[in-house]
From TrEMBL:
CDD domains (alphabetical): AdoMet_MTases
Keyword entries, A-Z: Lipid metabolism, Methyltransferase, S-adenosyl-L-methionine, Transferase
PANTHER family: CYCLOPROPANE-FATTY-ACYL-PHOSPHOLIPID SYNTHASE
Keyword Transferase: yes
UniProt name for this protein: Class I SAM-dependent methyltransferase
Family in the record: Belongs to the CFA/CMAS family.
Signal peptide range: none
Polyketide synthase-like methyltransferase domain boundaries: 156-400
Native species: Streptomyces tagetis
Entry EC no(s): 2.1.1.-
Biological process, per Gene Ontology: lipid biosynthetic process; methylation
Pfam families assigned to the protein according to its UniProt record, in alphabetical order: CMAS
Gene Ontology molecular function, alphabetical: methyltransferase activity
Length: 433
C-alpha cells in the first residue's frame, strides 16, 4: 500500500461531510491534502483504532499522547482545522462522534476500520488517570486529583510557567509583541488581585489553592499583610515554603498542606481563590462558597478567579472535556459565570464586580506553550514524552478555546456585607483600572 494518506483523506471527508483543511502524511510515506497546510502525521494504524473505538476528543487525544499522531507545522492552525474531528459544531460540521449516527457516514467508518486492521483497540497511554469508583470530591479523591496534576515536578512547572511560578491567567497591558512579558503580566495580575481585595498592613489573607506561593509572597512583601496559603500538593507546599524563607517572610506567610474545608482559624480580612474553584465540583460548590463566607469577617472581601464555560442546553450533563478529565484535571467541572455568581450569593455574599479576562488567558497559554516548545528536550526528560505531549496539546487547545469564546475566565469580587449594608467599596469600584 502506498496510498494510505489519500484513502484517509477521502474517508475523513466522507465522515465529516466537509473538506479537510490539513494535509495528511501516513505511515506508508504517502501524503495527500492541501499543499502548504499543516500536516497531520498518522504514524501507524493504531492511531485509527484509537479514533474509531473512542470517537471524538478522547480517541484523538490518546493517539496524540501515545505518539501515534503528530502535527508538522503550525499547531494552532492544525488544531483549529481538526476541530471537526473532535467537537460538535452544528449541522454543517457535527463532529466525528455525531457523524457516526448517520447511516452514510457509518460506511466510511467501516472503511476506516478495514484500513486500521486488527487487533482490538490498544490500552490507553499510561499518563491517563485510572478512574476510582465512589463519590467525587471527597477529601481523598480531591487529593488524588490534585496530585495527578500538580505533583509532576516543580522543575517542569518552572520551565512552563517561567520565573513568576503563577499558574493562572496573567493580566496583560500589551502582548509580548508590543513589549509586554509574561513576568510583567503575572506581576500585574497579582497586584490587581491585591487592589481588588483592598489589602492594608496587618490584615489577614487566606489564599485558597496557593500554588507555589507567588500571591502569598507578593501580598506579604508589597502590602504588609499576614498570609495563610493552603494547598493539597506536597510538592507545591515544599517549594512555596522555600521561596517564603528565601524572601525572609516566614513571620508573615504560612503555607499549609490542608483542605479548604478544614481551615478553622478565621476570621480573615480577605480571601483569594485563583484557579482553584474549578476543582471544587458543581455539587459541593455551595458548600465551598459557604465555607469561605464563614471564614471572612463582616465587610471582608473574596476574589474568586475562575474559568467558566458557555451555558448548555442540558445543564445536568458532565461539564468537562473528556481529554481534560482523563489527562489534565481529573474530576474538574466548569460552570457558567452566572451559576457561580448565583452560588456565591446563595452562600450570603454580595457580588460587587465581575470582570471577564478571557483574552488574557489565551495570551498566557500561548506563552506557556512557547516556553514548553523552546525547552522540549528538557521537558521530556523531566516528566515523560507522553506527559509533555499532554501539556502541549492541552495548553494549545485551551488557548484556541479562550480565543473562540468556548470558555472564559472571570474575576468575581464579592463582599460579606454586614447588616449595616456598608460594603466598604467606593462608589466607583473600578478604581484598579
Amino acid at each position: 500500500m502506498a496510498d494510505a494518506a489519500l484513502r484517509l483523506q477521502n474517508l475523513f471527508e466522507q465522515l465529516l461531510g466537509t473538506p479537510l483543511a490539513v494535509r495528511i502524511r501516513a505511515w506508508d510515506g504517502s501524503e495527500a491534502g492541501p499543499p502548504g497546510a499543516p500536516t497531520l502525521v498518522v504514524r501507524n494504524r493504531r492511531a485509527l483504532r484509537r479514533l474509531l473505538f473512542k470517537p471524538g476528543e478522547l480517541g484523538l487525544a490518546r493517539a496524540w499522547v501515545a505518539g501515534d499522531l503528530d502535527i508538522d507545522g503550525d499547531l494552532y492552525a492544525a488544531l483549529a482545522s481538526l476541530a471537526g474531528l473532535v467537537w460538535e459544531r452544528g449541522e454543517d460540521a457535527p463532529g466525528l462522534l455525531a457523524s457516526l449516527r448517520d447511516p452514510g457516514a457509518r460506511a466510511a467508518a467501516r472503511g476506516l476500520l478495514r484500513l486500521a486492521g486488527p487487533p482490538l483497540p490498544p490500552a490507553p497511554p499510561p499518563e491517563e488517570i485510572r478512574r476510582v469508583r465512589g463519590n467525587l470530591h471527597t477529601r481523598r479523591t480531591d487529593r488524588r486529583a490534585i496530585s495527578h496534576h500538580y505533583d509532576v515536578g516543580n522543575d517542569f512547572y518552572e520551565l512552563v510557567l517561567g520565573p513568576s511560578m503563577v499558574y493562572s491567567c496573567a493580566y496583560w497591558s500589551a502582548p509580548e509583541a508590543e513589549g509586554g512579558t509574561l513576568e510583567d503580566a503575572q506581576r500585574d495580575k497579582l497586584e490587581l488581585v491585591c487592589r481588588k481585595l483592598d489589602l492594608s498592613p496587618g490584615q489577614r489573607l487566606l489564599d485558597v489553592g496557593c500554588g507555589w506561593g507567588s500571591l502569598a509572597i507578593h501580598a506579604a512583601r508589597e502590602h504588609d499583610v499576614r498570609v495563610v496559603g493552603v494547598t493539597l500538593s506536597q510538592e507545591q507546599a515544599a517549594y512555596a515554603r522555600k521561596r517564603v524563607a528565601e524572601e525572609g517572610l516566614t513571620d508573615r506567610v504560612e503555607i499549609r498542606v490542608q483542605d479548604y474545608r478544614d481551615v478553622a482559624d478565621g476570621p480573615y480580612d480577605a480571601i483569594s481563590s485563583l484557579g482553584m474553584a474549578e476543582h471544587v465540583g458543581a455539587e459541593p460548590y455551595l458548600r465551598y462558597a459557604g465555607d469561605l463566607f464563614r471564614l471572612l469577617r463582616p465587610g471582608g472581601r473574596l476574589l474568586n478567579h475562575q474559568i467558566a464555560r458557555r451555558p448548555q442546553g442540558d445543564e445536568s450533563a458532565y461539564t468537562v472535556d473528556a481529554f481534560i478529565d482523563a489527562y489534565v484535571f481529573p474530576d474538574g467541572e466548569l460552570a457558567p459565570v452566572g451559576t457561580t455568581v448565583t452560588q456565591l450569593e446563595r452562600a450570603g455574599f454580595e457580588v460587587r464586580d465581575v470582570e471577564s479576562i478571557r483574552e488574557h488567558y489565551a495570551l498566557t497559554l500561548r506563552r506557556w506553550v512557547a516556553n514548553l516548545e523552546s525547552e522540549w528536550a528538557a521537558a521530556t526528560r523531566m516528566v515523560s514524552p507522553g506527559r509533555a505531549r499532554v501539556w502541549r496539546l492541552y495548553m494549545a487547545a485551551s488557548a484556541l478555546a479562550f480565543e473562540r469564546n468556548r470558555i472564559g475566565v472571570n474575576q468575581v469580587l464579592a463582599v460579606k456585607t454586614p447588616e449595616s449594608g456598608r460594603s466598604g467599596l467606593p462608589l466607583r469600584s473600578r478604581t484598579w483600572n
